[in-house]
């Protein structure tokens, strides 16, 4: 086995009831009168509540279909951490167990979290709510952009953010794992403090984040190669064509999502703003050209007629696509080296054919990232460390051999 490689457990996923993180099955199922859920299964909590005699609730950081993320203070060290409280609903509980399993495997392969994934600190079952504590991070790149009136990120920040995204996701791919839900909401700044300047043309203040270091979060849908692959994965706007066409998917579906994210970071707009499969495919054809005939013929979905997308350009939906989408090259605001490289890597990430899509190993060496300072090129540092380690091992073997003589 390659050193440091993740291997998913062959045994069933974590049995929470047997873990020393949690309580006994009897204690888990008994709920004191003070513990209540709302109609959707969210835990009802208030500021100042203390969970598990350890975590003091400060405020809510965010909410999703899975549950809520809460800022809490850990009484053991008085540090603020993020507590993900999963709904008291069976399918979300099971998803949380899968996420815990993935995070533990990541920790085995990368104990210091050098590959930019969020660190899990603890997990436990709180009266039917799976709870996971994480290191405290800043805003997501989406929330920062939203609070900044969807102002695009500057070119050099797009380069650093997207480079780190490639580096982090490549680590997953190298270990036979697909994230499956890459989107701006799942990329968090380590620290989202910012400076403010006044934009005279737009007549408003513009925020500029000071520190562009990021980490990936939300591994609840992450899937190992050998595991069952759900038919539909990814959040709509970042969903690859092979997923929509139900042709099967693997790591390249993450790369497609990253192409959409890169576009959004730089232009401040969502590339595929739709909620309908057929319209989504029509947008793809408008922006990227016709879908490959092979994919159209192979799919069992109902979106095609005689190998072509069944789409009426003259319908209301057709007009919407025509008016809101244009060929990708026409989004390029200016022609210079940085913009040529940016749109080249986006084009290559958005190749329809998964097998032809750029790999993340190739992406890390793409000219788009060439201007990043050497200290930010993490994969180059890894290569040097690996080379040095091999030289040291080789030297030790030679020394051992000479001493044995």
TrEMBL record:
Keywords: ATP-binding, Kinase, Nucleotide-binding, Serine/threonine-protein kinase, Transferase
Coiled-coil blocks: none
Pfam families recorded: Pkinase
Annotated Gene3D superfamilies: Phosphorylase Kinase, domain 1, Transferase(Phosphotransferase) domain 1
Domain Protein kinase: 55-369
UniProt-listed InterPro entries: CLK_kinases, Kinase-like_dom_sf, Prot_kinase_dom, Protein_kinase_ATP_BS, Ser/Thr_kinase_AS
Region (Disordered): 13-39
Residues binding ATP, per UniProt: 84
Family: Belongs to the protein kinase superfamily. CMGC Ser/Thr protein kinase family. Lammer subfamily.
Annotated protein name in UniProt: Dual specificity protein kinase CLK2-like isoform X2
Organism of this sequence: Limulus polyphemus (Atlantic horseshoe crab)
Underlying gene: LOC106458770
């Amino acid at each position: 086995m390659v050193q440091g490689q993740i291997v998913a457990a062959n045994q069933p996923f974590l049995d929470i009831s047997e873990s020393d993180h949690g309580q006994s099955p009897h204690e888990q199922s008994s709920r004191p009168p003070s513990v209540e859920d709302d109609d959707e299964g969210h835990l009802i909590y208030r500021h100042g509540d203390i969970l598990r005699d350890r975590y003091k609730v400060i405020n809510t950081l965010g909410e999703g279909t899975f549950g809520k993320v809460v800022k809490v203070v850990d009484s053991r060290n008085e540090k603020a951490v993020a507590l993900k409280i999963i709904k008291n609903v069976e399918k979300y509980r099971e998803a949380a167990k899968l996420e815990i399993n993935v995070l533990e495997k990541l920790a085995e392969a990368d104990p210091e979290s050098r590959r930019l994934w969020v660190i899990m600190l603890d997990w436990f079952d709180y009266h039917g709510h799976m709870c996971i504590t994480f290191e405290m991070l800043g805003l997501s790149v989406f929330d920062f952009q939203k609070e900044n009136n969807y102002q695009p990120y500057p070119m050099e920040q797009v380069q650093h953010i997207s480079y780190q995204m490639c580096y982090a996701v490549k680590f997953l791919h190298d270990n036979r794992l697909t994230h499956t839900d890459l989107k701006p909401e799942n990329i968090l700044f380590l620290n989202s403090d910012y400076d403010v300047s006044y934009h005279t043309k737009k007549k408003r203040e513009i925020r500029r984040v000071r520190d562009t270091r990021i980490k990936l979060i939300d591994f609840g849908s992450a899937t190992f190669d050998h595991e069952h692959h759900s038919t539909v994965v990814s959040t709509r706007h970042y969903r690859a064509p092979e997923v929509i066409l139900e042709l099967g998917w693997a790591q390249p579906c993450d790369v497609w999502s990253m192409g959409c994210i890169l576009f959004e970071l730089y232009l401040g707009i969502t590339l595929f703003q739709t909620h309908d499969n057929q319209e989504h495919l029509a947008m793809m054809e408008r922006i990227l050209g016709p879908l490959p005939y092979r994919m159209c013929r192979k799919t069992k979905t109902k979106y095609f007629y005689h190998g072509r997308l069944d789409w009426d350009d003259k319908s209301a939906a057709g007009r919407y696509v025509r008016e809101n989408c244009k060929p990708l090259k026409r989004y390029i605001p200016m022609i210079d080296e940085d913009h040529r490289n940016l749109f080249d890597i986006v084009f290559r990430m958005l190749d329809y054919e998964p097998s032809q899509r750029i790999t993340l190993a190739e992406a890390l060496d793409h000219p788009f990232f060439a201007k990043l300072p050497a200290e930010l090129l993490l994969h180059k540092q890894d290569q040097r460390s690996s080379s040095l380690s091999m030289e040291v091992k080789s030297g030790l073997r030679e020394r051992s051999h000479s001493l044995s003589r």
